[in-house]
Structure formats: structure tokens, C-alpha cells
Amino acid sequence: MADFPWLTTIILLPIAATLPLPFLPDKDGKTVRWYALIVGLIDFALIVYAFCTQYELGNPDLQLFESYSWVAPLDLNWSVGADGLSMPLIILTGFITTLAMLAAWPVTLKPKLFYFLMLAMYGGQIAVFAVQDMLLFFLVWELELIPVYLLLSIWGGKKRLYAATKFILYTAGGSLFILIAALAMAFYGDTVTFDMSAIAAKDYAINAQLLLYAAFFIAYAVKLPIFPLHTWLPDAHGEATAPVHMLLAGILLKMGGYALIRMNAGMLPDAHAIFAPVLVILGVVNIVYAALTSFAQRNLKRKIAYSSISHMGFVLIGLGSFTDLGLSGAVLQMVSHGLIGASLFFMVGATYDRTHTLMLDEMGGVGQKMRKSFAMWTTCSLASLALPGMSGFVAELMVFVGFSSSDAYSTPFKVVVVFLAAVGVILTPIYLLSMLREMLYGPENKELIEHEALVDSEPREVFIIASLLVPIIGIGLYPKLVTQIYDATTVQLTARLRDSVPSLGKGTSIASTPLQAPAIGDR
Length: 523
Prior knowledge:
Elements: H1 6-16, H2 30-54, E1 63-71, E2 76-82, H3 87-103, H4 111-130, H5 134-143, H6 145-155, H7 160-187, H8 196-201, H9 206-223, H10 232-239, H11 242-267, H12 269-296, H13 300-319, H14 324-355, H15 366-369, H16 371-384, H17 391-404, H18 411-441, H19 446-451, H20 459-477, H21 480-499
Antiparallel strand pairs: 1-2
Helix pairs in contact: 1-2, 1-4, 2-3, 2-4, 3-4, 3-11, 3-14, 3-20, 4-5, 4-6, 5-7, 6-7, 7-9, 7-10, 9-11, 9-12, 10-13, 11-12, 11-13, 11-14, 12-13, 12-18, 13-14, 13-17, 13-18, 14-16, 14-17, 14-20, 14-21, 16-18, 16-20, 17-20
């Protein structure tokens, strides 16, 4: 079975499964939703089987590699593979997307089109983490734009067209920088190639690296998202349905973080040494600004959306730390937030289905009528505020310790960054617990209690949240469940990043002049 094309099958199965959908005999959507869920379960089972039987944990190199010539004149190859950076996110994608299929159970408007788009996104999202050809990466990166646009514009809220248009403008505009940088790297030097490993091995001049790094950074800053290119996300979340929420928070944001690690840091390490302090500063801005903004939001969806932006700031700090622990924490934070963000946004959708409002001012006393929802809301919120024993705590602690112990920065710089990031961490429980108090505890909104059918969570919803909480708590109690998947890869990448800063080997710091790395231009 070692020669079986595992990743190609995993990517193409859900995409191929969309072809029979228009011809399925189905009037009320029940057949279609079961069909999509079964396809999702089969694909996720293939992911787990391939990981358990074909993936070697201690190997930092590319595994499950497949390469087929596709368009020979353009040197475009179907090249896919998985290493420690991509494998945990491939597993996360299969897990979250399959649960999103189950979360979409109440969808009755155009069910065939809805599940067609969900299955197409399933394959496209896995492809983003697996492809090893730069031009192919750009193509699959663009593949998810149209499904998300349609899912927002057809099944979204009152301002769905505005949110969908803003999403497509931001992300498509950012994608142009990926194409420009990919073409520049492919044609740089004496050879023309789109193979990622060959591109990474080229000897780029430092000025070229800086330009390429900046181009990639703009594109991935939109997707992560990073201030000030983040404004599409609250609007998109504000109008999305629960399953689309889960895909946006659980997977799409992780594409930006993954690409920053894979391309910016992995392919352009010298430029990363110069940009790293900027990433750290932007990470702090993300944490504090988004936490303060979330604190001020009265709309439930927008409050959770800004909370997601805040948590993504830790990925930037970990990426800029130049330590094994910091980078490991950044990857773990992406996995952790994928699970926690999906759980919170599913709860938002389930609550809206019952209360028909998103405004905290119009809620109150809901917990008395919906005891199961009360318990699930509380548990998911505690996970988001990084309660010890849950995955968010471990990930954020690793980033904090990794950055504070870094020898790449001066002590005053580290003190300021850790202090400001800690302020954001302190704000998180304040706005989340105040949200729970207003929404669940009271005072009661009698009009809401008397006129809305506040039915408690059904077994399907309890199962989805329980499925998300099991890995959240499991990782919190035993982080090695995930870290062992990528440790070998992140240690290798950190060593390469440190080699790009000669001063690290001499005990000096680079953060006193954030935009300069000593002697890096001489490399």
C-alpha cells in the first residue's frame, strides 16, 4: 500500500463526489445530506488510515509524496506530499469539514448546490496543505474563493452580498501577490521550475528575498488575518451560517498561518530574519487590538470573530521567536484554535436558530431554558480563554515561554511584547465571561423567553460539540498527541532560521533595530 496515491485520492474523492449530486433523486435534501456526510466520513477515514500506516512521526522530510506531469510545456506538475507542517492541518481539515457537513443538517435552501460547494471546498482545502508545486498551490488557493463567496451570498444573512463581495475582493486581491511572487521565484536564476523544494534551494539576493517576502506576507496577512487587513473577517462571520463559520474559523484562517511558515519562513529565511520583529509587533497588535474590539462588540458573531483575530496573533509571535518551543506553539495554536473556533461559531449558529437575534442586549435568561446549551457554551468559552487543561492554554504558554526565552531579541523588547500580549490574554476572559453572563444568566428578556421556542440542544448538536471538546481537552492534558506529528519538522526549520542570523551564534540580539539583521546582507 506504500505506492498507493493516498493524498491524490483524499483530495480528489470529495471533488469527484460532487459530480453525481445534481442527478440524485431528492426533494427535501435528506438524501443529499446523507450522501455528503458519508463522503466526508470516508475521506476522513482515509486521512486517518494514511496517517496511521504511512506517516513516520520522527521523519522531518516530505512523506506520502506523489508527482505526475500535468502540463509539460508550463512545467506544471501534480505534486503532493505531507510533512510535519501540513499533516496536522490535513487531519484538522478532514475532521472540521466532516463535522460541518453534520452541522449543515437544517439547510433546506438549494441543498444540492450547498453540499456541492461543501464537498468542493473539502478537497480544495486539503490540497492547499498538500501541494508541492507553486503554480498548483496558487490554483488550489483560488479554488476555495468561489465556494465561500457563493456560500456567503446565497445562504448568508441580510448583508450577505456585501460580506461576500468584501471577502472576494480582499482575498482575490491578496492572491495576486502569490502569483506574482511565485512566478518571480520560478524564473529566478538559471533554471525555471515551480517545484517548491527546488525553488527553496535557489540562492536569492537579499533584496529579492525582501520583495518576495513582502508579497507573500500581504497575501497571507489577508487570510490569517493580520491588522489592518482583517476587516473582511468580522463581516463574513457576521453573515455566515454555522457550517460556513466552522470552515472559516477552523480551516481558512489556518491557510494563512501555514503559508507564512511554509513559504515566508521556510523558503526565504534570510528575509524572515529581518521581518521577524515586525511579525512579533503585528502579533501583539492583533492580540490587544482585537481583544479590545471584541470587548466592545454587542453582536455575538462579531465578538467571536474579533476573538479569533486576537488568538491568531500568537501564531505570529511564535513564528518570529526563533525557538523550537515558540514555533511549536504557533503550529499548536493553529490546530487548537481550529477546534475551539469551530465549536464557538457552531454554538453561535445554534443559539441564533432559537433566539433569532445576535444582539447581546436582546438576550438574557437563555440558560434557564436551554441547560445543555448553557453547559456547552460555558465549556467552549473556557477553552477559548485558555483554561488550564485545554488546548488553548498549552499553545499560548508554549508561545510565551518560547518567545521570552529567545536569544534573538533584547530583554527590553521581550518584556514589552510579553507584557502587552499578557494584557490581551487578561482581556479574553473578561469579554467572554461577560458575554456568557449577559446571554445565559440574565436578567431575563421576557419577550424572548415567552415568544421564542427556546428548545434545548438536540443530540446532533451535542455530538458535534462533544466531538470537538474531546481533542481540545485531550491536547490540553497531553499535548504530545499533536506535537509529535510536527516536532521533527519544526526543529529542522528553526535550526535553518537561526542559521540565517549570524548574531544568534554570538549571543547578540536583533530586536534593538527591528528592521535589520546584523551581517545578513553578507550571506
